[in-house]
Amino acid sequence: MSAIDHVFAQLRQEGRKTLIPFISAGDPDLEFTAAMLRRLPEVGIRLCEVGIPYSDPIADGPVIQASYTRALQRGISVRAILEAISPVATQAPIVPITMVSYAIVYRHGLETYVREAKQAGVAGLIVPDLPLEESSPLADVCRREDLSLIQLITPTTPKERAKRIAEQTTGFIYYVSVVGITGERKQLPPELVDNVAWLRDQTDLPICIGFGISQPEHVRMLAPVADGLIVGSALVRRIAEAKELPRQKAIETALEFLRHLAAALEPNNKITMA
Length: 274
Fold this sequence. Notes:
By secondary structure, the protein is α/β, with parallel strands linked by helices. The protein is built from twelve helices and nine strands. It is globular, with a radius of gyration of 17 Å. The two termini are 27 Å apart.
């Protein structure tokens, strides 16, 4: 079992769901990224996606693209990101997952990237531009290192293909809520709950929903069918808007937003302060 498997096993035993925030590594800087990771358990969060900046990301909207651009302009590197994550992952009860383009993994070498990520405490990879048919080499390496390779299913994925993706996925299934790019939405598709409920009948894997989640109403709508809810652009935007604030105040602003969403996640979820 990977660290992600252990987290979801514990959550299910407790009858709890979880938020999974997405933060762009190095925006505004790596010290902020590490500090955010360290503080996330205060609002009951156990898993976090760390976006590895890339100049040509797939499916990311303007908010996340802009955050990647800012980080790249500062000369961010994968090695520096992993070095920043490592002490947090070993000291704090937070499990990092990298959202990373396959181009980055391929350039580093599959075994090198996976090994270095594992050494830094990363528990899984989300590689959005890696199609199922080409995922076996990376899946094999992840399996040997006991890292989860999390794959995506979208509203337009044919059902038979969705079943195949579920069979090849480890850790959890990332269900994309909408057709299009990342970004905050006022409303989510009404058929989303039924789509995820169907997928629930096809697999025992945890299902986490992402894209567009930014309001307590979204959380209340999706909590009955999801194991986790991924919050990206709404959090990245708030971090960007708070960059002129003192460091601790900016972190508190981000945490308060997550606390607000977590309160709507599930009536029985008790958020305890560290």
